[in-house]
UniProtKB/TrEMBL annotation:
One of its GO terms (molecular function) is transcription cis-regulatory region binding. InterPro entries: Homeodomain-like_sf, HTH-type_TetR-like_transc_reg, HTH_TetR, KstR_C. Residues 8-68 form the HTH tetR-type domain. The keyword DNA-binding applies. It comes from Mycolicibacterium poriferae. Keywords: DNA-binding, Transcription, Transcription regulation. Residues 31-50 bind DNA. SUPFAM superfamilies: Homeodomain-like. It holds the Pfam family TetR_N. This is TetR family transcriptional regulator.
Length: 207
């Protein structure tokens, strides 16, 4: 088990301190000397594990997310669950902890918009992917691609508005719920699609 994985499972005083600072004082209050003091550690120990302040904050967000946002993420109902219900179960699992921890959401957006943002996004995607694949089993591939583009834009836009102080953390899920409702309603009520020309050509050629 790697050091990061062990920290997620067993707790980590250093990362606990960073999370405490992020939640109570905000992103800019995370200073390495103060973290070292509160964690009863040394700057040398911190730099050995995390070369930069940004790396330390990213690790703390991954650590917190593993325990709160993605803890035990599953999809209930199996094949009987509707597409709407399955997607909303995932979104609630992700966003409800943020409603109680808005400072962590603000820190997440700061990191997501930084050079480390892709790593943080990848971390979350890897944890959500199994449940997402279960929900989207049997769903049209083109619709899945459209969902990805739409949700990425909607969520990033909502996080930006939250970061700018235009909306509260509790405003995000209701917007996502309406978005999921209308998208899935349109998909499920649409008539069956005809195969595209390229699919017809492959079928006729026996490929």
């Amino acid at each position: 088990m790697t050091e990061t994985s062990a920290a997620r499972h067993n707790g980590d005083r250093l990362l606990d301190v960073v999370v405490e600072i992020l939640e109570s004082e905000g992103y800019d209050a995370v200073q390495l000397r103060e973290v070292a003091r509160r964690a009863q550690s040394s700057l040398a120990t911190i730099y050995k594990r995390y070369p930069t302040r940004d790396d330390l904050i990213l690790a703390a967000l991954e650590y917190w997310s593993q325990r709160h946002r993605y803890a035990g993420i599953t999809v209930g109902g199996g094949s009987e669950a509707s597409l709407y219900d399955g997607l909303m179960q995932i979104f609630r699992t992700i966003f409800e902890p943020w409603e109680s921890h808005p400072e962590m959401l603000a820190a997440y957006f700061r990191v997501r918009s930084s050079p480390n943002g892709q790593r943080l996004f990848r971390f979350g995607l890897d944890l959500v992917a199994p449940a997402g694949l279960e929900v989207l089993a049997g769903v049209d591939d083109e619709f899945i691609a459209n969902l990805d583009a739409i949700f990425s834009s909607v969520i990033y836009g909502l996080l930006g508005r939250f970061s700018a102080g235009e909306i509260a953390a509790t405003d995000i899920l209701p917007v996502l719920e309406r978005t999921v409702y209308w998208l899935t309603l349109g998909y499920e009520s649409a008539p069956p699609r005809r195969p595209s020309a390229s699919i017809k050509r492959r079928s006729n050629s026996g490929g």
